[in-house]
Amino acid sequence: MVNNSHIVDLRMAGKTITKLIIQSTVIEKITHEECEVSDVWINDCLITDFYGVSENRKLPDYFRDDCSVQVFNHTLNTSKISELDLNDAQKTLLVIIKKLFFQHGAGRKEEALLRGAESYWDRRIAQRIITFMISEKIVSRIKGDQGHVYVPQRRHTRRMGAIVELRRSSKDPIWDMVSSA
Q1: pLDDT confidence of 18, banded at 50, 70, 90?
Q2: pTM for the whole thing?
Q3: Do 46 and 119 have their domain in common?
């Protein structure tokens, strides 16, 4: 239980969280995309920035009505990625990271992972990104019933989240690779 505290950055994205109570606390930033919760209650909190929902009425049920949010930042989905001022390779990387690390499921079939419907999607770059991720052990490739399946190595979730969050400010080697593409 966290009570009468101050939390600078509560990163819930892509995590499973159980048995957590936060009350009467100031939370500067919450990142809340694709997380699974059980027995979680957040009450009477002042939240400065909430990433992952766009409106107060869409707060998850475990956030009580007495929570106050100053700024909502929308979920960075595929269509929002297309609006970013980034090159096509950078946008493709963000989609791959989101598909692998921040969507439900243990992995992605090769066909689904490499399929992109947006105009910026670059299949050649997507294959380079996956090859890089395998060589760096960010993902592993296993044989599935209907082709290869790419499985994210969860120890890299925070790193991938930082790339999505920081984008142009990221100094990660995979971001550097797509930035020079």
Answers
A1: very high
A2: 0.63
A3: no
